[in-house]
Design goal:
The complex is a heterodimer of chains A (about 600) and B (about 325).
Chain A lengths: L8 H29 L14 E5 L21 H12 L5 E4 L4 E4 L2 E6 L5 E6 L13 H13 L6 H7 E8 L2 E6 L6 H7 L11 H4 L23 E6 L3 E6 L4 H4 L10 E5 L4 H9 L5 E5 L1 H10 L3 E2 L10 E11 L9 H10 L2 H9 L14 H8 L2 H7 L6 H10 L3 E2 L5 E3 L2 E2 L1 E7 L5 H11 L3 E7 L6 H6 L5 E7 L6 H4 L27 H10 L9 H17 L2 E14 L3 E2 L20 H5 L1 E2 L4
Parallel strand pairs in A: 1-10, 17-18, 17-19
Antiparallel strand pairs in A: 2-3, 4-5, 5-7, 6-7, 8-9, 9-10, 11-20, 12-20, 13-19, 13-20, 14-15, 15-16, 21-22
Chain B lengths: L2 H27 L5 H11 L9 H10 L6 H13 L14 H35 L4 H4 L2 H10 L2 H15 L19 H38 L2 H8 L4 H27 L5 H6 L5 H10 L3 H29 L9
Helix pairs in contact in B: 1-14, 5-9, 5-11, 5-14, 7-9, 8-9, 9-11, 10-11, 11-14, 13-14
The chains are: A alpha+beta (about 600), B mainly alpha (about 325).
Chain lengths: ~600, ~325
């Protein structure tokens, strides 16, 4: 068979050109099709990059754009819609909170007073607050929102509000009273001040009244919907991005409360995969939001020095988030119900090694379940002696052996602890987002004779929480989130009211799964319930010390280290980001107080 | 081709769809997790209220989504909805309709994967055929290990490599997204060009991996075809190389490739999940990934239903068209 003469000069041109041209035409034609499908309805002006702030989501999960054309904050998908860009643009809150200092920042409200009997809260709203359509924001809107939540069980947060809110009394347009079903010293703080997790946006009554609150999408750009009090208005929304343009008629600027934020446009972008999000930050496509692993951050910073994180120095670049890396233990059923076994487990763990290996030394070991936030520091400082008395961070194989032998265990031929012929074998349940810790802890525990294997639930955490909450797990890795300003926030989770009624029935709260039941401890928490917290209050501090004493003695869980995230900022176009030296708010774009950055940012002039 | 054959083939299509749709219904429900409860647990894990207090809400949505009914009743209701082309309401996007979510995502995926798949098929098939043609070895021999390597590398890894090279080291292309941030979709040349530019890297990752797949397949088939008597006959008759290549060898070797292409084209409705995640591309694959992570049964079922129908229809059409492509294939009883 002769040599193919297909590739003569004249032929090469056509044989390669035709498919190339055809495919190019196809590419363009295909590219056009989405444009035709998703054309926007609103006329929107172009805004230069130098006037645009681009925020990517915190990471996969709730921060992804869930139905870009649904702005209902309380329907089944509601939290994901609010707990990101909407809480900085469309919605504002009665208060904001600076986690770094514990400062409460009045925003839509001016003040609040908790009644001495803890059964009501009087709130004064700020004068001059308006919705984006020019209607006044009044106490009636607050009453409408809270009572709508109370009476509509299909809404997210309805169960909370139904449990606590009896009704809302409108005193006048600027003053109202929230009447509670039962005493709660922290109700207002929990739902309206510390907006890191719970976000309760107030709804405009004149828009929402008469709508089905579970299915109302609150989205119609042609009529200016969604209506909020925030300094931005939504002008375009697609699965890739949401565009918010500055509302120059914002009430805050008109009333002199704040200056208008400098960015003319805010764009919320789908973050995508972590690696590409990092690449986009390096390329100045994102101004804020991408979370990186410490090593990735260092590489990104080397490529683009304008990229920074919370701390100016490593290796702990990241910021605390009020959560603690924790080894959860089932104190009620299974082998961990024996305090001596829990103590042996505790002595098996080398926290610093875990931090170094799992998190590249990017965080710090902790032994009690409080973050390093400023509001908690004054309490922790007073607990130092007590902590030194127990020495919970004390990896020591000899102490492991002592406790295990006392508990009736002996080592089998393979070197694992055994009792009555049965080896202590169990899974170390690990949700996907905490997987760096799994192999490290497994190794440390195995080295000390515990036949434990980490079992990963990734990317879907189910049924991790089902197992743990029902008391069917023995040991698990988790973050324990709670206290952001006072010890009670986390300590209450060890009260027996959070324990399962019986094994197989789930606990009453996601983070409270130790199944710890101690009447002595319950009595301490019961006494803390009605007290307004203060590190200078001897009674509150004494109760805190007693609770921590039991925590360290009984080891209902093992606090390992502080959870810190390397959130990143890019100062190519905007300067003035929060950081350790300029800690006006926590750096988490999920949280409402992140909005304070919008008022602090200054354009660098880069184009 | 007889009428009986066509009827039988259509019957098989419906049978396949019936079983596939039934399996599609059952698989998500084999998990012990209640999707509404999982959704609320996800909320609770991020601070939204207390999981134990969600019972009333869970009951309400269980009733809305039929989860409180026996499985057989859910199954019958599901078929009723499918026959009315109602894919139901999404859990994660509630109260958004599954159909709307799929329609929102589908154009991106079809645009990206249709072009990429055709590109890979055309280039891969031509290259594979040339590799097998005698005398081309020296010129194209280098491509064999390249093709084998490309076919062995998952396309999402190629994607990351392309991002590194063309978006970071030599930043000439955007690293992610379907179009420039801040741009608004409209039927204008700048936007069309922008979309095409953003599609280049994800498309290239699929094309590069695909070329290897199609090329090696074509090469193997060509080698087999080259040993056929009719090729010897054609050579003995002194036919031109180009005639032998295109009309005798390439056309015959293309038949199994076309079958593969039909299945690949039908499968694009499932999206290229990892590519879409890596590149933050708002297509079907990304939608499916989020639906699986979020226990959103109805979106999963909706996407898979589209895939089932696409593949089933593609194979049906292929079976009916095959005799036209290859006159040797006849569907008569012997």
């Amino acid at each position: 068979m002769a040599r193919l003469t297909l590739l003569r000069a004249g032929d090469i041109k056509w044989q390669t050109l035709v498919p190339s041209l055809t495919a190019s035409v196809l590419l363009i034609a295909a590219a056009v099709s989405p444009a035709a499908v998703a054309a926007p309805s609103a006329q929107v002006q172009d805004v230069a990059r130098k006037d645009t702030l681009i925020v990517s989501g915190f990471g996969p999960g709730l921060s992804e754009i869930t139905d870009p054309q649904n702005m209902n904050p309380y329907s089944l998908g509601g939290l994901g819609r609010v707990r990101d860009i909407l809480n900085k643009t469309i919605y504002e809150f009665l208060y904001l909170y600076n986690h770094n200092t514990g400062e409460e920042i009045p925003w839509l409200a001016q003040s609040y007073t908790v009644a001495p009997d803890l059964l009501s809260v009087d709130v004064a709203l700020r004068n001059g607050v308006e919705w984006s359509d020019g209607q006044p924001f009044t106490s009636d809107d607050v009453k409408f929102t809270l009572e709508l939540l109370r009476d509509t069980p299909s809404l997210v947060f309805a169960s909370d509000i139904k449990e606590w809110v009896k009704d809302v009394t409108v005193i006048d347009p600027q003053h109202f009273r929230i009447n509670l079903n039962k005493p709660n010293a922290r109700f207002f703080y929990f739902y309206f001040v510390e907006n890191s997790e719970i976000h309760l946006p107030i709804l405009p009554q004149h828009i929402w009244q008469g709508q089905d609150p579970a299915s109302f999408t609150n989205f119609d750009l042609s009529t200016g919907s969604p209506v909020g009090t925030g300094p931005y208005k939504l002008v375009d929304a697609s699965a890739q991005q949401q565009l918010f343009d500055r509302n120059d008629s914002w009430w805050g600027a008109k009333s002199g409360f704040q200056s208008l934020p400098k960015p003319l446009r805010v764009i919320f972008m789908q973050p995508g995969a972590a690696d590409t999000a990092a690449a986009r930050t390096i390329n100045n496509e994102f101004d804020a939001g991408a979370v990186m692993q410490p090593g990735v951050f260092e590489a990104a910073h080397a490529r683009n020095p304008n990229i920074s994180s919370w701390s100016p120095q490593g290796p702990s670049w990241g910021a605390p988030d009020a959560c603690l890396y924790t080894l959860g233990l089932n104190t009620r059923w299974g082998p961990m119900a024996d305090l001596r076994v829990r103590r042996a487990i505790s002595h098996s763990i080398n926290r610093q090694a875990m931090v170094d290996l799992a998190y590249e030394s990017s965080t710090v070991p902790q032994v009690i379940p409080f973050s390093t936030y400023g509001g908690l520091a004054a309490y922790q400082n007073q607990l130092t002696d007590l902590i030194n008395q127990y020495k919970p961070d004390d990896p020591d194989p000899a102490k492991v052996a002592t406790d295990m032998l006392e508990a009736g265990y002996t080592k089998d031929s393979a070197g694992y602890w055994t009792k009555g012929g049965a080896r202590l074998t169990t899974d170390l349940l690990t949700p996907g987002w905490l997987k760096p810790m799994g192999p490290v802890l497994e190794k440390q525990l195995r080295d000390n004779g515990f036949d434990m294997t980490f079992k990963l639930f990734d990317p879907d955490t189910n049924p991790f929480f089902d197992i743990v909450q029902a008391g069917n797990g023995n040991a698990w890795i988790i973050v324990h989130c709670g206290s952001s300003r006072e010890p009670y926030g986390t300590l209450q989770h060890f009260h027996s009211r959070f324990a399962s009624p019986s094994q197989g029935q789930k606990t009453a709260y996601t983070w409270a799964n130790s199944q710890y039941m101690n009447p002595e401890y319950d009595a301490i928490i019961n006494q803390m319930d009605p007290i307004q917290p203060s590190p200078t209050d001897p009674q509150y501090m004494a109760l805190t010390t007693q609770a921590i004493n039991l925590f360290l003695r009984d080891i209902p869980e093992i606090t390992l280290a502080e959870e810190r995230h390397v959130v990143t900022f890019n100062s190519t176009y905007w300067s003035g980001w929060m950081n350790q030296q300029n800690a006006y708010a926590a750096p988490y774009s999920l949280w409402a107080a992140f909005s304070l950055a919008f008022y602090k940012l200054e354009p660098t002039g880069a184009s | 081709m007889t009428l009986g054959y066509v009827a039988r083939r259509i019957g098989v299509f419906f049978l396949v769809v019936f079983f596939a749709v039934s399996i599609n219904f059952l698989i998500p429900r084999l998990r012990s997790t209640n999707p509404i409860e999982a959704r609320m647990n996800e909320f609770a894990a991020t601070g939204a209220g207390r999981a134990g207090d969600f019972h009333e809400l869970i009951e309400i949505y269980n009733a809305k989504f039929d989860f409180d009914k026996p499985l057989w009743q859910q199954y019958l209701n599901y078929w009723g909805d499918v026959l009315h082309f109602d894919l139901g309401t999404s859990i994660a996007f509630y109260p958004g309709k599954v159909r709307d979510e799929i329609m929102r995502a589908a154009p991106w995926t079809i645009g990206l994967l249709l072009v990429s798949t055709l590109f890979a098929f055309v280039i891969g098939s031509i290259l594979g055929a040339l590799l097998a043609w005698p005398g081309m070895g020296k010129l194209f021999g280098i491509f064999v290990p390249v093709l084998m390597t490309l076919s062995a590398i998952p396309y999402y890894l190629l994607g990351l490599l392309l991002v590194y090279v063309f978006a970071l080291v030599w930043p000439v292309l955007p690293s992610a997204g379907a179009y420039t941030s801040g741009a608004r979709l409209a039927l204008t040349w700048p936007i069309v060009g922008d979309i095409g530019r953003h599609a280049l890297l994800p498309a290239a990752s699929i094309v590069l991996a695909g070329i290897g797949f199609w090329g090696l397949g074509m090469r193997a088939t060509m080698v087999s075809v080259m040993g056929e008597d009719y090729m010897t006959m054609a050579n003995a008759k002194g036919l031109r190389d180009r005639t032998m290549f295109f009309h005798y060898a390439f056309r015959n070797a293309l038949l199994p490739q076309v079958t593969g292409l039909a299945i690949a084209l039908a499968g694009i409705m499932s999206g290229a999940i990892l590519v879409e995640i890596v590149f933050g591309y708002p297509g079907i694959g990304f939608l499916l990934y989020r639906a699986i992570s979020g226990n959103d049964y109805f979106v999963i079922q909706g996407v898979v239903l589209f895939v089932i129908l696409s593949v089933g229809l593609a194979l049906l059409i292929l079976d009916l068209v095959y005799p036209l492509l290859d006159p040797r294939i006849q569907f008569r009883k012997t």
